[in-house]
Amino acid sequence: MIMRWFKENVWAAVAITLIRIYVGWKWVDAGWHKLTGGFDAGGFLKGAVGKPVADHATQEVLFPNYTYFLNHFALPNVKLINFLIPVGEFLIGVGLIVGGLTLTAAFFGMMLNFLFLFAGTVSTNPWLLLLGVIIFTAGTNAGRFGLDVYLLPILRKAWTKLTQRNGKTITG
């Protein structure tokens, strides 16, 4: 009953819109500073690999697969990472602020928060992750007061047209 209210009620949509705009602003701000400030992830990535998140008692690395990913993919491709992080943060923020592809923006925002947390950076990531989960959980109600009202019907129509041929639905 509470989830139904959360996903369908107009007042819940108002509250989610305020949260969405706040979180969006945080992402736009972070992305803009990186885009205009000469962002370089190299030092951060080297630090995350050199001193990975470890258990305090045993010093065992807690996320060895992530450390491997950073060392063998992210560091060798730091120029790509230097582009993807600031542009991604900025686009996540814009999507959340305008309510366009809201769930996609919230999803990728949560993913970035998780990646930063796996690297050992706490900062505002837990807070933004929690708010991102709230936005994502609201479903389409999160974009009720935004571009999603116009965008989602167009995307649904295009998807239906793409997945149907001669009146038959294409399956898996």
Automatic annotation (TrEMBL):
It comes from the Bacteria. Keywords: Membrane, Transmembrane, Transmembrane helix. Pfam families: DoxX. The lineage of its organism: Bacteria, Bacillati, Bacillota, Bacilli, Bacillales. It is a multi-pass membrane protein. The keyword Protein biosynthesis does not apply. It comes from Cohnella silvisoli. InterPro entries: DoxX. The chain crosses the membrane at residues 90-115. This is DoxX family protein. It is found in: Membrane.
